[in-house]
Amino acid sequence: MLSASTQLSLKSIFLGCIQRENAKSISKRLCNTVSELALSILLENEWPDMLSFMFQCVTFDSAKLQEAVFLIFMQLAQYIGKTIVSHIKHLYSVFLQSLTSSLSSDVKITTLSVAINFIRYLSSSTDRDQFQDLLSTMMRTISEALNCGQEATTQEALELLIELAWTEQRFLRRQLVDVVGSMLQITEADSLEEGKRHLAVEFVITLAEARERGRGMMRKLPQFISRLFAILMKMLLDIEDDPAWHSADSEDEDVAESSNYSVGQECLDMLAISLGGNMIVPVA
């Protein structure tokens, strides 16, 4: 068992290393180490300076340091929700400032993922609702990142939004038109990678499938249902013609299927089942 002074010294060394380290790969390893250490002692109030250090660092004019600290926030979000409830207003300001003012797209995307994670793990709907106004900024951040070609960095954020759509439809309700509209814009952007467009489709389908509240909200947006239906039908047309088919000796029903076709078919089935014939037939 390390002495109290040794423990204090190690904590100080770790935090100092995070501030000084310039190599991104090493910085991530440091963040992982600090997160693991914090998980074991933060809830016992044995690292009282940790949160103040993190809040202080995100205000520094250093994208590297901001991203590092947000990575720690990301890994702690699931476990320190109750601990940080008293800081929600401050946290909201930190997220908003980073999403709107940071010059680093990496910091913005990391902040976005952290914000979604915190919202997911807050146990009180009242606490979650305090982040409602962030939704439009969050969607704009995703759109800007995709438009700038940063598709790889947006994948985790899109995946987290899908989880949010499944578990917390109520949180999305007030901004539903903007959120669904933004996702459909992503699915319609032929210039984007198929994988990102498929995630955007999955988000809307997840919202339609999720519990009764989600289905009820989607039924109030018939303009989006018809738009989504058209997108899925277009995906079904993505079949590559091959002259060799005309002389084929055997029949393989799946030979021409693209990933667009497969996703479109699966999502169309799920949409029809979740919303029912009364909603689908009029737009078919």
Textual characterization of the structure:
The structure is a single chain. By secondary structure, the chain is an all-alpha fold. It has a domain at 175-239 and 258-283. It has 17 helices and no strands. The protein has helices spanning 4-20, 24-41, 49-57, 63-76, 81-84, 88-101, 105-121, 125-129, 135-147, 151-167, 169-172, 176-188, 194-209, 211-219, 222-236, 259-275, 277-280. The longest helix is centred in the N-terminal third of the chain and has 18 residues, at 24-41. InterPro entries: ARM-like, ARM-type_fold, Importin_beta, Importin_rep_4, TPR_IPO4/5. This is Importin-5. Residues 24-180 form the IPO4/5-like TPR repeats domain. One of its GO terms (cellular component) is nucleus. Keywords: Cytoplasm, Nucleus, Protein transport, Repeat, Transport.
Instruction: Calculate Rg over CA atoms.
Output: 23 Å
Structural class of the secondary elements? mainly alpha
Shape: elongated
* Amino-to-carboxy terminus distance: 68 Å
Let me know the number of strands.
0
Strand-and-helix sequence, N→C? HHHHHHHHHHHHHHHHH
Mean pLDDT: 83
**Low-pLDDT ranges:** none
Helix percent band: over 70%
**How many H/I helical runs?**
17
Strand content: under 5%
Largest sheet: none
